[in-house]
Amino acid sequence: MLQNLFKSYAHMRVPEGTRVRFLVVENNEQATLQGVVDTFRTHVPFCPVQYEVEPRFGIAFARNRVLEYAIDAGDDFLAFADDDECVDADWLVQLLAERDAFDLDIVGSPVRLAPAAPETTLWQKMIWSGMNLANKKSEAKYLSKRSSGQAHRIRIATGSWMGNLAFFRRTGVRFDNGLALAGGEDWRLWADASRLGAKTGWTPTAIAYETVPQDRLTFAYQYRRSRDISVIEMRAKLKSRRIITLVRLPGSLIGRMLSVCLYLMAVPFTRGRTLVKAASRLGSIVGLLRACLGRESAHYNRIDGA
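That's the Glycosyltransferase 2-like domain-containing protein sequence above. Prediction below.
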């Protein structure tokens, strides 16, 4: 999938008067991508391409390696896209335009699902359709917030992201290495930056597309992902507001259980798409309980995709 991202970068428009460098960080004990990176270099001859290996296993370590490199290199801005994505030709132009228009420290944008592969089974297509529906609803909610002047309340993930490095130099905000295998480090960084006064926003015009591997098109994966996200969020709430969080827990659990029942009842009328929501909501219930028992998320102990 990394090759698809590189192809989209090669066709990406660069804003006028802007110099771009690419940094590829492989989270591994040794380099295995040299040939792929060398091929990419031939497709972007006017842009430097730096290839680094981060041996400490965990996505937060890899993201911090990128952030520190960009800061030390004296760069002005840093943009992230994930290795299972590809970006529109105007992706960088639109991110930078939004950042400049509102003088933002962090700006995000939509990550839509790429079409399912032709060999995807009917069952997997149903799951993909449920994921796509949920993704579209989230994007519509973000667009509504932006239109009402509430873009600063949108949690920004690093799937499609730009940061003003002056802010990170000044504040020292970094991805939480304690979440290296848990995930959620990008939302935590957004929250930490917001508390320190970062101006954050979101644009609907810088589009990235995520390819969903077939091994993620299962109810088990949807359950695990939601469970692990719920663990991360609940542990953070317990750490900052333990009493209030525990008081509210029974109501949250009851509400989620009811929603699981409603999603299951709606299955005949949604061609099965609400099964994805039911699996995700069930995972979130288990995640809340696991967090209360002191369990941690280890979402990235298992790697999906190729």
